[in-house]
Design brief:
The complex is a heterodimer. By secondary structure, chain A is of the alpha/beta class. Chain A has helices at about 15-25, 65-75, 85-95, 150-160, 220-229; strands at about 5, 30-35, 45, 80-85, 100-105, 110-120, 135-140, 145-150, 165-170, 185-190, 195-200. Chain B is α+β, with helices and mostly antiparallel strands. The chains are: A alpha/beta, B alpha+beta.
């Protein structure tokens, strides 16, 4: 699988993502600077996490208006696989590639810990590997991960199998106690209508080797490798 | 031609710059005339306690700073220590106490920013951060607000910058009511053939300013940090700087890219006393003069005076000497990261420090003398009072109640509420997170096995009772925490927080603590390679507890052998390395259960410390253990409770249940567990190495049982341990 990672000033999990992609796919991803309006031909485009432009206006708002994002949009509109993690998810919602918005966490604090995720959709290009074990641990690290959307939009996500991941406990219960940030319906990640764009707050790239205490984060990348094979 | 900007140098003006009569006389002697207003500001910046170490230098010189692995000791932006394979770790700890009390979020944030800049100025990418925080009593009206702001500020800066916070300390004591402590530690990684230093080389080379613009924030900050607080502290808010982690992250990437081009000849970050300190150090260390044209300094505000530009402590700024042949490459890097960049001066051959503004020379000073001739004091000391004698201990005090108090109160409860606000996972190399004995980070670029361990420690109540033993203990505990995870302790950094050095008793406390630190660092082969002194931590004449925080770095050849403190398996045997508990003087038990602060600090037998540490590291290296934990606050009982809570599994321990044995804080001790098959060989090794060791019991079940004195469910202990912090902070919202 060939991939490209979009870089903005202020991102800081770009190296984590580049490393994970290289380790799992065996190919060095292209690193694309935000001013570039053209993307190389790749199977997957990733917008990694961090604090693009310091999150100073609104998380992701400035990055969403960059030349590189126009190119990402073109790639996604043509059906190209596109993944946004954390700040990348915020950028995708700000750019209109995914619906809804990410607000301050319920407790108004940055939160870094390992939570559990339940893959609700196990048929997409991003999630097929979760079919046999949909409940997995995954780290989160964010201040603005409280997903919200209007009632019609939520119904659309629910009815069309577009909720990729929900926050849950280790037994898979997606109740309020397992919701770390106040996200509506415990939503941790969503797909676009076509199923080729995924945005998620948790960081699968930080759970891919023994040193991370688990390798369940690989499943998302392995699903993608399978999808483009 | 020097011009005085029409500001008369009066006695009051001199005093308001923190310069005394004797120091002013020395200035007159050095320059042979009255200084200009800008020059007076420059002297005050260079000669205040914070920058000149005038009260502490004499004592700091006694510390061991050299070692086989030490590449650069104190004097550079941070210490540099060889970790093999052509790599080195760069680290330092620095205080931001005064600003954090005035404005907790920004004070703490810029403290983190400053220490990160010290590390990457040397060419290292930051890989780990820690912090040592001390607040007033939980019930003090300001404490919650300060905890909330400081923790948010530390996280706000470090998380955005992108460095994992892997350890630290948070403590409460009424003695910090008027002066909290915020000590920030950072470590970075570099190749030993790519270390960047501040000494300028070559005459007539351009001096380049890079980073954020200069504003009026922080003017006089270092001078503020060199005086006691009174009731007027709110008026000092403008002396606190405002942090911009986004710009700092861009600055990091730009600096590392720039260094890779070979364009950087010398580099110095603008920290305390900003442009003044950085420019003077670059010139003085390189035996060169510096000429600055202040009209070229990028400014944030209009009509800034030379005085303000020279004393501003605006953050995220760097000064560099660049190779003029590589100017184009350098410019491309600045442009890419959209950072302000300007040539603001040049190096000269005449050893003068000149500042020119609107064509007028506003400063012309001997550059070497600004640092070399800074005052140095052997401040008077008086005999240090002995602590009150240890009274009788009520033998019938309920040990269960004591243990629940010690694991569930302000100083013993879990710090999860704090560290979950820090990004502990970023960079993907954190192999041991906060909550253990030491944070451990895997080292990139080697064989993938190498790791570094980090810990920061001090027990201020010991230092107050007995500064010499307290100083030793701070080093020993840090060294022990590194050993407990299996890391070989390499070197350390000190952050010495004390009260007013002009009081003879405080000066004696300071001197004795340093001597104790030196004793321990020598005995444990743990040199001090960087550090910071913060004096005048007093408000309305009440000083803090003496708090010489020690930050240590250890090396591990293979992180997969690393130990953690949690009990692992049913049936594992629990052993105590070190002697039986006896010492309750200055213990957490005495303070928190009996409300008494008495007795001497525990003595540190450095020989035993070294022997026991080497023994435990050897066992870990040979993969004979399943858990390891150092004994500190609360002694054996608290250590066992922490191991049970972390592992979510109980233990049956048959020990003498006198309060001394359960809660005594004797030093040089570890609690370890091992598979029963390995016990004989562990005991045999202990006897070969003359290490005291005792079998205590076995891991298993859902309760922690200590003889017939204590039987507590692990779930109940966890509830007590985890609930104090969130409950305390939630009360804020209810107020």
């Amino acid at each position: 699988m060939k991939s490209a990672v979009i870089l903005f000033p202020g991102l800081n999990r770009d190296r984590d993502m580049l490393t994970a992609l290289e380790k799992i796919t065996g190919h060095k991803p292209h690193a694309i600077w935000h001013g570039d309006a053209e993307l190389p031909k790749v199977d997957l485009v990733v917008i990694p996490g961090g604090f693009s432009y310091g999150d100073y206006l609104r998380a992701g708002a400035i990055a969403a208006r960059s030349p590189a994002l126009a190119a990402v949009k073109k790639h996604a509109d043509a059906g190209g696989l596109t993944l946004g993690v954390c700040n990348g998810f915020q950028i995708l919602t700000e750019a209109g590639l995914l619906p809804g918005a990410l607000m301050r966490n319920r407790d108004l604090k940055f939160l870094c810990k390992t939570i559990h995720l339940k893959a609700e959709n196990t048929t997409s290009a991003f999630t097929s590997e979760y079919a046999n074990s949909p409940v997995v641990p995954c780290p989160i690290a964010h201040h603005d991960g409280n997903y919200t959307i209007d009632p019609d939009g939520l119904k659309d996500l629910q009815d069309n199998d577009r909720i990729a991941f929900r926050y849950c406990d280790q037994n898979g219960n997606t109740d309020l106690a397992a919701n770390p940030n106040g996200s509506i319906d415990n939503i941790a990640g969503i797909l676009n209508k076509r199923g080729n764009v995924l945005g998620m707050m948790p960081h699968p790239e930080n759970l891919i080797e023994k040193a991370h205490g688990g390798i369940q984060g690989r499943m998302i990348f392995e699903s993608l490798v399978k999808a483009v094979a | 031609m020097l011009k005085n900007q029409d500001i008369e140098i009066t006695k009051e003006l001199i005093a308001s710059h923190g310069i005394n009569d004797e120091e002013y006389a020395k200035i007159l002697e050095l320059i042979g005339r009255e200084p200009t207003y800008t020059e007076l500001g420059i002297f005050s910046a260079m000669w205040n306690e914070h920058c000149s170490y005038k009260s502490s230098k004499l004592w700091l010189k006694t510390l061991p700073t050299k070692g086989e692995r030490v590449i650069h000791g104190p004097g550079e932006n941070a210490g540099v220590v060889d970790i093999g394979d052509g790599q080195a770790v760069v680290f330092k700890m620095e205080s931001h106490n005064h600003p954090s009390f005035i404005e907790p979020y920004q004070g703490a944030a810029t403290g983190v920013g400053g220490i990160l800049r010290d590390v990457f100025t040397m060419g290292a990418r930051p890989i780990a951060a820690m912090n040592a925080l001390r607040f007033g009593a939980p019930e003090h009206e300001k404490t919650r607000h300060l905890v909330s702001g400081v923790v948010e500020g530390v996280g706000g800066y470090g998380n955005s910058f992108g460095v994992p916070t892997v350890g630290g300390e948070v403590e409460f004591d009424a003695r910090y009511n008027g002066n909290i402590l915020v000590n920030a530690f950072a470590a970075g990684l570099l190749d030993t053939d790519k270390i960047f230093l501040c000494a300028a080389k070559g005459v007539g080379l351009p001096i380049v300013y890079l980073g954020a613009k200069t504003g009026r924030d922080g003017v006089g900050g270092a001078t503020m940090a060199s005086a006691e607080f009174g009731d007027d502290i709110d008026e000092k808010r403008p002396t606190v700087q405002v942090g911009d982690p986004f710009t700092e992250k861009c600055l990091l990437e730009a600096c590392l890219e720039l260094m890779a081009t070979g364009a950087v000849i010398a580099i110095q970050d603008m920290g305390a006393a900003g442009l003044t300190c950085s420019a003077v150090e670059m010139g003085a260390q390189g035996n060169l003069g510096v000429e600055l044209n202040l009209n070229d300094v990028p400014v944030r505000e209009e009509h800034m005076t030379p005085y303000e530009m020279m004393l501003s402590e605006s953050q995220e700024r760097m000064l560099m000497v660049l190779d003029p042949n590589k100017e184009e490459e350098a410019q491309a890097v600045f442009k890419k990261w959209e950072l302000d960049f300007a040539i603001v001066g040049k190096t000269t051959a005449d050893l003068r420090f000149r500042c020119i503004h609107n064509g007028i020379e506003v400063a012309n000073l001997p550059i070497k003398d600004l640092g070399d001739e800074a005052p140095e004091y052997d401040r008077p000391r008086s005999e240090y009072p002995a602590p009150p004698a240890l009274g009788d201990i009520p033998a019938d005090f309920d040990p269960t109640k004591a243990l629940m108090t010690l694991i569930g109160n302000a100083n013993g409860a879990s710090r999860r509420w704090v560290w979950e606000q820090y990004d502990t996972l970023i960079q993907g190399n954190s192999v041991q997170l906060p909550g253990g004995d030491a944070g451990v980070v895997r080292v990139e670029g080697a064989d993938g096995k190498k790791a570094l361990a980090f810990s920061v420690d001090v027990t201020p109540r010991y230092c107050e009772a007995n500064p010499r033993e307290g100083g030793k203990q701070a080093v020993a505990e840090c060294w022990r925490n590194l050993s407990a995870v299996g890391a070989l302790p390499l070197a350390s950094t000190d952050n010495l927080n004390f009260g007013n050095p002009e009081k003879p008793e405080i000066m004696e406390q300071f001197a004795q603590s340093i001597l104790g630190i030196g004793d321990a660092c020598r005995a444990l082969d743990f040199p001090i390679v960087s550090g910071n002194v913060s004096l005048y931590n007093e408000t309305n004449g009440i000083g803090i507890l003496p708090t010489p925080a020690i930050g240590g770095v250890g090396l591990m050849a293979d992180w997969s052998k690393m130990m953690t403190q949690s009990f692992k398996n049913e049936g594992d045997v629990i052993l105590l390395v070190g002697k039986k508990g006896t010492h309750l003087g200055q213990s957490a038990f005495l303070r928190d259960c009996l409300d008494r602060i008495e007795g001497d600090a525990p003595t540190v037998d450095l020989e035993e410390e070294a022997k026991n540490g080497a023994f435990v590291r050897g066992l870990i290296d040979d993969e004979l253990l399943t858990a390891s934990h150092d004994l500190s606050d609360g002694g054996l009982a608290v250590a066992l409770a922490e191991m049970a809570i972390a592992g979510d599994i109980g233990a049956k321990v048959g020990v003498a249940t006198d309060l001394q044995n359960l809660f005594g804080e004797d030093q040089a001790r570890y609690c370890i567990t091992a598979n029963s098959a390995n016990i004989d060989s562990i005991l045999a090794r202990a006897s070969e190495q003359s290490v005291s060791i005792a079998k205590l019991g076995t891991v298993g079940g859902e309760t922690l049982q200590l003889g017939d004195a204590i039987s507590l469910k692990v779930t109940d202990m966890r509830a007590a341990n985890e609930s104090w912090f969130p409950n305390y902070m939630a009360a804020e919202a209810a107020e």
